[in-house]
Design a protein that fits this description.
By secondary structure, this protein is of the alpha/beta class. Helix content is 42%, strand content 9%. It has 13 helices and seven strands. The protein has helices at 10-30, 60-71, 93-105, 116-132, 153-172, 191-198, 221-233, 256-265, 303-306, 321-328, 338-341, 361-396, 420-439; strands spanning 146-150, 180-185, 206-209, 237-244, 269-273, 298-302, 314-318. A seven-stranded mixed β-sheet has the order 1-7-6-5-4-2-3, with helices on both faces. Helix 5 packs across helix 10. The longest helix has 36 residues, at 361-396. The relative contact order is 0.14. The model has no long low-confidence stretch (mean pLDDT 92). Keywords: Decarboxylase, Lyase, Pyridoxal phosphate. This is Tyrosine decarboxylase 1 isoform X2. Belongs to the group II decarboxylase family.
């Protein structure tokens, strides 16, 4: 049929892509009108869609009509200006364009030879970001370390935990796995617990150290030191310490200089998880929150949270890339090539769990180029200003207080389209709910 959609045809792509872009643009134009949280019941979609795939092709318009009528109701709109849950998950025009380019090339860039630009651009843009964050030179690709884009912070902490585990086992012997101990505060993301489960670390050797209001929910160096003393006296081996810059629960910041010093004394791998708040540190006035990162073996932040880069894009820097490669490298015959064999290039397949990987550096490159450092800093500062506006509103109402140790209201500002009117609207909603509750 003349109208039949081909697997890839330039003119068909042009026509349908224009239609899809118009559809997406209209969605963003009207996104504020949708309820942020989906209102459907579990299993709603099965009643709306056929039991089997269509035998004959359908038109794009019929699919888009179904998206509007059947998919939209089941979407929680993370990009809505009225979204204040979990954490930001930023999309942007630059991020979209980068994703389009990545989809166009559709390279599976596991090694340099599969698409040299995919590897080399990733090295360059992560060096740019490292310099923007004023990370130590050890994290740059020109030295023994470098940066790599992972899918999520969960993947980042897993690969460095495996590298740290194997480094310790090479030192003490492969039979010492049951003695290896991990340390972090009880505010640390559960991704670390999952990494320990995957990495074979015994659950009883995972130390989730209590953090409370006395340290603003940061990990206390004294509490850590006491736990280390007890463990070493019992013949256990401390091998991994995770600090957080911006915990999920309260955006707490662990004291990196003190923790880094302790990790160094005990020869532990020191990982800094700045997935949530790391983006703020591109602003000079907030860079202080990662002071001490020079003691870290690895550092991670999620560009897809608060840096206008569409999901997924979690960046990880390590001081010693060979620690990752020794744990994660495979080299079957069908992947061998002259550049890799001569060690002239980086093969990112050896820095991650999967073999295949997308050309994600394109969207980072576009975000950095189309917005520029100054505008990215302004974007971060505006969200912080809006969060401070919400705090001021809370403090003005005697029915609410900014206090810990009780049930709390967590309000995360960071959606791309959020303005002060959305803050005010959300506060009005909360005040009305409080009035209703207090009247009962």
């Amino acid at each position: 049929m003349d109208n039949e959609l081909k697997p890839m045809d330039a003119e068909q792509l042009r026509e349908r892509a224009h239609k899809m872009v118009d559809f997406i643009a209209d969605y963003y134009k009207n996104i504020e009108d949708f309820p942020v949280l989906s209102q459907v019941e579990p299993g709603y979609l099965r009643n709306l869609l056929p039991e089997s795939a269509p035998h004959n092709p359908e038109s794009l318009q019929s699919v888009l009509d179904d998206v509007q009528k059947k998919i939209f109701p089941g979407v929680t709109h993370w990009q809505s200006p009225n979204y204040f849950a979990y954490y930001p998950s930023n999309s942007s025009i630059a991020g979209f364009l980068g994703e389009m380019l990545s989809a166009a090339f559709n390279v599976i860039g596991f090694s340099w030879v599969t698409s040299p630009a995919a590897t080399e651009l990733e090295m360059i843009v992560l060096d740019w970001l490292a310099k923007l964050l004023k990370l130590p030179d050890d994290f740059l690709s020109s030295g023994k370390g470098g940066g790599v884009i992972q899918g999520t912070a969960s993947e980042a902490v897993l690969v460095v935990l495996l590298a740290a585990r194997d480094r310790a086992l090479r030192r003490f012997g492969k039979d010492y796995l049951k003695k290896l101990v991990v340390y972090a505060s009880d505010q640390t993301h559960s991704a670390l617990q999952k990494a320990c489960q995957i990495g074979g670390i015994h659950p009883e050797n995972c130390r989730w150290l209590k953090a409370d209001i006395s340290t603003n929910y940061a990990l206390s160096p004294n509490v850590l030191s006491e736990e280390l003393s007890r463990d070493t006296a019992r013949g256990l081996i401390p091998f991994f310490l995770c600090a957080t810059v911006g915990t999920t629960s309260s955006t707490a910041v662990d004291p990196l200089p003190e923790l880094g010093s302790i990790a160094k004394r005990h020869e532990m791998w020191f990982h800094v998880d700045a997935a949530y708040a790391g983006s703020a540190c591109v602003c000079p006035e907030y860079r202080q929150y990662i002071d001490g990162v020079e003691e870290a073996d690895s550092f991670n932040m999620n560009l897809h949270k608060w840096f206008l880069t569409n999901f997924d894009c979690s960046v990880l820097w390590v001081k010693d890339r060979h620690a990752l490669i020794r744990s994660l490298s495979t080299n079957p015959e069908y992947l061998k090539n002259k550049a890799s064999e001569a060690e002239l290039v980086v093969d990112y397949k050896d820095w991650q769990i999967p073999l295949g990987r997308r050309f994600r550096s394109l969207k980072v490159w576009l975000v950095l180029r189309l917005y520029g450092t100054e505008n990215l800093q302004k974007y971060i500062r505006n969200h912080i200003r809006l969060a401070e506006r919400f705090e001021a509103l809370v403090r003005e109402d005697p029915r609410f207080e900014v206090l810990s140790g009780k049930y709390i209201l967590r309000f995360a500002v960071g959606a791309p389209l959020t303005e002060e009117k959305h803050i005010n609207s959300a506060w009005k909603l909360l005040q009305d709910a409080a009035s209703t509750l207090l009247a009962i």
